[in-house]
Amino acid sequence: MRLACLILTALMVLDGGTSWVAAQSGTIPLTRLDISGTFLKEPDKTAKDLSGIACLAPQQGRRNCLLINDESRAAQRAVIENDRITAGAIVELIGEQPSAKTLGTAPDATCKKKDDFEDLDGEGVAYADPYFYIVGSHGCSRKKDKFRLSSFILARVNADPAASGQAETTYRVSDLLRRATPVDTYFAKDLESENGLNIEGVAAQGDRLWFGLRAPVVGDNAYLVSAVVSDLFAAGHEPGSAKADAVPVRLDGRGIRDLAALPDGRLLVLAGAPHGPEVPFKLFAVEPASGASEELGTLAPVAETIKGETVVGKAEALAVLEASADRVTFVVLFDSLPNGAPHRGQVDLPKRNRN
């Protein structure tokens, strides 16, 4: 309701006749990117549920990226150049059945119901040379509280568009979450009624992955959980045994909807409602080791007119394009809008305070 009020009272700037960005005092302005091609949910269906993006450093002005939507077994490559994003090749991540090659041990079905092995429910993408890492939600299904093994997988693929080979997959993130105090008790609980654990983003810093949790939010704290890549992808089917702690982060009562690494060691965090009605989406700069956070601003709402109705996008995917000591340029994608309605934004960064 709060978001709806913001939208109704905002000054709307038409964007190509089909979408608009609200211009409001105190918000972070966004500029729509042009789109070439189509991001696909199915071979003949445009994706409206893009939920993760990561990009390499630019080469001659072109950034190779990977995008994921949360209702697919595959990811899709893309290129960002100037003010345009171009959809590329499909990258298969998981099959129609569990793979015997998946590392670690499959977690037990602990949600109220058990469902078939279907989509990855991919929620985030990160890049650490030479791989893109794609993480499933690792939570019970939002609407029916079902356990779907395919959602409890972390995959990685070579970032080189010319590379071949299958994706590597692991179950060991579940082992990590089950030991990460205090969020361990929320593992495999219902998101809506029990504040159940749900991964919504991932960022990479060297050989360490940071998983951002949409929920639980306990008190005013959202949480980050980290792991070393070599532990997650160690050969064999032994469960993971690495020590795990959840780092509390204050995000104005919000959960983490995505995150991306900044060059100075901080994380750029996109925050929104952990469950229930949506609230305005905010950006924060976060020290991952301590959880110290600084609010950067609120994203301007983005909406499109679809079949005669105004549909408000949910900010779900974030990637850093450029960053200096005092400013960051980013791209954000929106769930519920065709092709993710990609927008570029800029915001000032406060000086890093390690204390």
Automatic annotation (TrEMBL):
Residues 116-146, 193-337 form the DUF3616 domain. Residues 1-23 form the signal peptide. InterPro entries: DUF3616. Pfam families: DUF3616. Transmembrane segments: none annotated. The keyword tRNA processing does not apply. The keyword Signal applies. Keywords: Signal. This is DUF3616 domain-containing protein. It comes from Bradyrhizobium oligotrophicum S58.
